Known about the structure:
By secondary structure, the protein is mostly helical. It has helices spanning 6-21, 25-50, 54-57, 59-80, 92-97, 102-130, 136-149, 153-174, 180-196, 202-215, 219-225, 229-233, 237-266, 268-274.
Amino acid sequence: MSLKSPVEIAKCACSLATTKGSLSFKNMLVLGFFGGAYIAFGSYFMIVVTQDAAQFVGLGLSKLFGGVVFSVGLLMVTVSGAELFTGNCLMPIGVLSGSVSFGKLLKNWVVVYCANFIGSILLAWIVYKSGLATNTSGVNALNIAIAKANIPFSQALFRGILCNWLLIIAVWMALSAKDVINKFICILMPISAFVAMGFEHCIANMFFIPFGMFLKNDIIVTELAALAPEKLATLSIAGLVHNLIPVTIGNIIGGAFFVATLYYIVFPRAFAEEK
């Protein structure tokens, strides 16, 4: 068979959690930096592809195309071995099985989350300084950032849950694949789905909102966008925090409970064998 069975996936997830829990601080930091940067590349790719697609194929297909190209970011993370906080929300499966301590889980989450932020915001700054987002792509990026900075807390929380439920299922299915092509197929549709349906991913938002914060000082982009000053004012540190807190909590619930915990309940014998 070219794909692992569900029980084999469960064993692989437990083993992977153990490996991630044993990473050194340096490796978590560097691999976390890569993870944030790769998701940021996928995010900017989405901005470019969707900047005018709705005019030709309609809003629904435009969102689908955006999701397809965004999935490249998770493919790079998965194949290259980078560390991604939202993907590591599968790690509680190792805690439940007894192969990873809760302390190691928290250390990984904190270090990787911070490293993802560094990678995301650095890429946002580099793309901004490249001067490529001074046309419709810049306007698209600005509108996306403003929309995300103004999502009500409860809505952002539930969108975060839905997002990482799908993302962790993509990771779970990718663990079944034994080659890159099958990994990409497993990743493609769940990731395309969460983007197209408007769910919220905290690491992607570490790129989208800071990128908008950089662009709001670009006269050409703001003139093209013709946005009211009060909308631009929401692109701030406060706006970023307003989004990241509920989305991060939601992402943890979506991955740690709806996938890691529930699959642990389904396959207790598989995890017992991995202890």
